[in-house]
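= Tokenised fold =
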Amino acid sequence: MTVIIIEDEKPAARRLNRMLLALGIDAKTMLHSVEESLNWLQNNEHPDLIFLDIQLSDGLSFEIFEEIDVKSAIIFTTAYDEYALKAFKLNSIDYLLKPLDEDELKFAVDMFKKKQPEQMNVQLNLDAIRKLLINPMDRKFKKRLTIRVGQHIKIINIDAVECFYSENKSTYIHTSENRNHLLESSLEYWQEQLNPEHFFRVNRTYIVQINAIKDIIAYSNSRLKLILNSYNETEIIVSRERVKDFKSWID
């Protein structure tokens, strides 16, 4: 499997390469700008997989696709919030939020390996992506959700939700009434629907609401433990890679 990294921050590119080496993947080529990437792709056989940052030193990486018919599968690495990525219309794509998480990187690579080569053609809705990236806060977020309770449908305001979480391949909410409710949509779906000023995904399992946080406790390996107002079923740990962004979010 041939892999290249396109990332304008050289320390970030080197860190990603080290993480890939730990997975048995050697990205021998690292590029740092739109211009450099265009030149390389025009003069070399396209790799199986590209790890691609969105914001490069000389523009958005989407400019590459306007000039070249890229034959590679793409995994985006980005500091943009998840909700900005809804416009990605690709047959085969994943994205990783910075700072990169080792488990999420492995999951993305494993997903790529399971895909068939003919599924890897890239189709980008560039106009829609740019619109969201330029005006991300224009998006309207969910203010309420509905759940089924027996034969009844109950309306729950989003601000009454302390956290969203996944368990046994299902998604649940825990409310300020100290109740858990099963949802039909995935955690990834809700991650796109929630206002990032109010909700933060602290790890692969939990999205928490800022007003629901009762206490924050220093935890092992530079992580943080969260205590919510009423949820106490399992520990909620901010993963080490997301601690910095979490601290910025609560500031």
